[in-house]
Amino acid sequence: MQPVVEGQKKNEKTSKAITLPGLTIFGTSGVSHMEKLIGEIIYSMHDIPNAEVEVRFGRMVDRDSTVKTFASDDQRYVPPMPLYSMCAISDSDKAANRDYKFAATVSQPAFNLLNRALCASFTHNSERTQRKQPTFMSDVRFQHFQERVHILPDGTRVMLKGDSPIAAFRKEKLRIVDFYCPRHEFDFRIQSAIERPVELPDYDVKKSKMRIKNRLSMFIGSCRLDMTLVENRKWSRKNDCFMLQKETFEVECEYAFDGTAYQGGLQNNMRISAFPGVHFLDRIKSFWQNCEAVLDELSNFHAQSSAET
């Protein structure tokens, strides 16, 4: 079967193929530059234990900025060159190579509206399933859980069950590609990393930071969409306990490496779709389409909430 590359006319024959490191993809649909980039990153990680590839949404701010939560419009970083469309402005794992930093948090109104839209779409399709009417949402799963983590000064993350440490790991970032999106309210970062398990260390809890993550995950196609309210806490000598410093609202799409796909799509107000996942190219397309849909909806919801206030 001959592939169709981007820009090719319908039914036009070609001998070209989509080439990734160690893999050549043939199919009936072309891939965009973004899908090729994501495919390259994902394929380079597919046989590495504890690997993760995720797209995180937020805003870029100046490297010296003191912004600790959501960056306002006037705090948003603007590249020195004029850009009018989505553009990668950095492809490096070294923060020193960038004159900005990425604040991976969205506005609370946009977070809340996206949450409601997802839940409303899921409920609507679940009701249709109960009435035995056809739906593409039949295998989409939601999961809600809380995660408690101590962050040590050396970057080690200690997982907690209640107040008891149960496991520890260090995250090694391998590749970071940041995209500035002038036509959207948010930018995004594609990041690959490895979470390496380590032995549980002895540590002074008073010198650590604590994060409590209240997360809603939606599994659809090759994508796990995570919406997380993060409570960032620091030890207070005065109160002799962890005290809340700030709350942040995080939205990210993580690629499902386990080969499991949940065929489905939100057919109502949100433009999210998925594929069966038996073909690598289909999984990449599904993943990026979900990421694009979230970026669009977050921007729409943020603009809507800003207009109302």
Work out the strand percent: 35-45%
CA-atom Rg in angstroms: 21 Å
Low-confidence stretches: 1-29, 124-138, 259-278
Give the beta-strand count.
12
Helix content: 10-25%
H/E element order: EEHEEEHEEEEEEEH
Helical stretch tally: 3
Most strands sheet:
8 strands, antiparallel, barrel
Structural class: alpha+beta
Mean pLDDT: 75
Identify the strand order in the major beta sheet.
3-9-8-7-6-10-11-12
Taking the alpha carbons of the first and last residues, their distance comes to 54 Å
- Basic shape: globular
Tell me what you see in this structure:
- An eight-stranded antiparallel β-barrel has the order 3-9-8-7-6-10-11-12. A two-stranded antiparallel ribbon has the order 1-2.
- With 309 residues, it is α+β, with helices and mostly antiparallel strands.
- The protein contains three helices and twelve strands, in the order ββαβββαβββββββα.
